[in-house]
Design a protein that fits this description.
Layout: E1 24-32, E2 40-45, E3 52-59, E4 65-73, E5 78-82, H1 83-86, E6 94-100, E7 106-112, E8 118-122, E9 127-132, E10 138-144, E11 151-158, E12 164-172, E13 177-184, E14 197-213, E15 223-226, E16 228-229, E17 236-247, E18 250-260, E19 266-274, E20 281-287, E21 292-296, E22 305-312, E23 317-324, H2 342-350, H3 356-367, H4 371-379, H5 392-404
Antiparallel strand pairs: 1-6, 2-5, 2-7, 3-4, 3-6, 7-8, 9-14, 9-16, 10-13, 10-14, 11-12, 11-14, 14-15, 17-18, 17-22, 18-21, 18-23, 19-20, 19-22
């Protein structure tokens, strides 16, 4: 089965931190496994009129420096480097901090195997009070201490109504890092299943990134987003890109997670404006003090809709947005465009153990393009698609099932095998 559409793609509004006092500090909490450092990279841009020297340092979980290097970014230029390129001799796992004497340097990090999944997030700002409006059935939060001294933190898991499910106190050494795996249902955290958002407070500023799956997003794909500074939360949120409905046979869905940071109840207006700028549509939701919503947002009308979203409230509010193309529905049929098993036969062929007639048949199968299958799929009202590669038929089928919240039934005797 072949497709040019990712199983689940995620879009978040990313705000790059800019420090306008002559210095930039960029924190990248996304944890790095030194053994697979080539699967995490960093991109930085220098908007200044003069070159900027950026110092990269990696730290392990207890805050020990494990690597250091410097890179020059040309005036108005950009650089991108893999972790393994920056820290050629680092063997310890950890996180990365980049500093520069130049102001305004902006950064982004990207991680994954770049075949089956890839996710990115901006550098994380440091703050003493942060909220994470979105939790999935798989949720972990990486917390780092950008200071040189120990800090104390409290993490609270809260229900959709703002009631406390659990609270954890912990210490983090200077430059240290901790990964808090809160949920991986049904295996981890069943006692916290009612939790819908997280709030962390610290004795000093910290940086944190959330990794979320199993809410519109199926593993191994993860949504990444940084903690939101409560002190800077406003009453208006703008999400520049929203898609909803059927496009080319693929069903897109937009969801928002919004948390009321006020001590008072709020009526929240969510307005969708089409890309033309005309015909805006609004809905209203009610959020009690400290409450959160985590649900799909639908707008009046039919067909594919493309535009932007504004959330407006009477007090401080925090939010993130998710866009997914996981569109499988009950009653849909599963179609394979090619027989499975070519990878196994290719391995046998590499060992010189595949008969010549089978080798020729394998080559013909692998050379066959999917154009005919693609045209047929569109005529059949295709909703979603995936390739079948490293995770095999069952692995990729399970990704669709989890992302679309459906159960797939596969008739083994009807699966074509090469």
């Amino acid at each position: 089965m072949k497709g040019n559409v990712r199983l689940a793609s995620v879009v978040f509004v990313l705000v790059f931190p800019v420090i306008a006092i002559g210095q930039t500090t960029l924190n990248f909490p996304l944890p790095v496994d030194a053994a697979s450092g080539s699967q995490v990279g960093y991109a930085l841009v220098n908007p200044n009129r003069a070159p900027a020297i950026v110092s990269f340092k990696s730290y392990d979980e207890v805050g020990a420096e494990t690597g250091s290097t410097s890179v020059s970014i040309p005036a108005g230029g950009q650089i991108s480097r893999l972790f393994s390129e920056l820290f050629t001799n680092t063997t310890a796992n950890g996180w990365v901090q980049a500093t520069s004497s130049a102001s305004g340097v902006q950064g982004f990090t990207l991680g994954g195997d770049f075949v089956n999944n890839v996710d990115g997030v901006a550098s994380a700002s440091a703050a003493v009070d942060q909220v994470f409006p979105l939790m999935g059935n798989t949720t972990a939060i990486v917390v780092t201490n950008p200071t040189s001294y120990q800090i104390s933190l409290t993490m609270k898991l809260l229900t959709s109504g703002g009631a406390e499910v659990a609270a954890f106190d912990f210490l983090l050494p200077g430059r240290g890092m901790t990964i808090k795996p809160l949920l991986d249902l049904p295996y981890i955290g069943s006692e916290y299943a009612a939790a819908r958002y997280v709030r962390i407070t610290g004795s000093d500023a910290f940086s944190a990134t959330a990794l979320v799956a199993q809410y519109l997003i199926a593993k191994p794909e993860f949504a990444l987003y940084n903690g939101i500074d409560v002190s800077k939360a406003g009453a208006v949120l703008n999400f520049p890109h929203v898609v909803s409905g059927d496009l080319g046979g693929i069903m897109y869905e937009t969801a928002v997670a919004l948390t009321n940071l006020s001590n008072a109840d709020q009526s929240v207006t969510i307005t969708f404006t089409p890309e033309s700028g005309f015909g805006a549509k609004s809905i209203q939701v009610f959020l009690t003090a400290g409450a959160t919503i985590r649900e799909s947002v639908s707008f009046p009308g039919s067909g594919f809709q493309n535009g932007w979203l504004q959330v407006r409230s009477g007090g401080p509010i925090a939010g993130v947005m998710v866009v997914t193309n996981a569109g499988a529905r009950v009653g849909d049929r599963l179609l394979l465009t090619k027989p499975i098993g070519t990878a196994l036969l290719a391995t046998v062929a590499k060992k010189g153990e595949l008969p010549e007639v089978e080798l020729r048949a394998l080559g013909e199968c692998m050379r066959a393009v999917n154009a005919t299958a693609a045209r047929a799929a569109l005529r059949l009202d295709l909703r979603c698609a995936t390739d079948i590669t490293g995770f095999g038929l069952l692995g990729h089928a399970s990704h669709i099932a989890r992302a679309s919240h459906v159960t797939l039934r596969i008739s083994v005797g009807r699966v074509p095998i090469r």
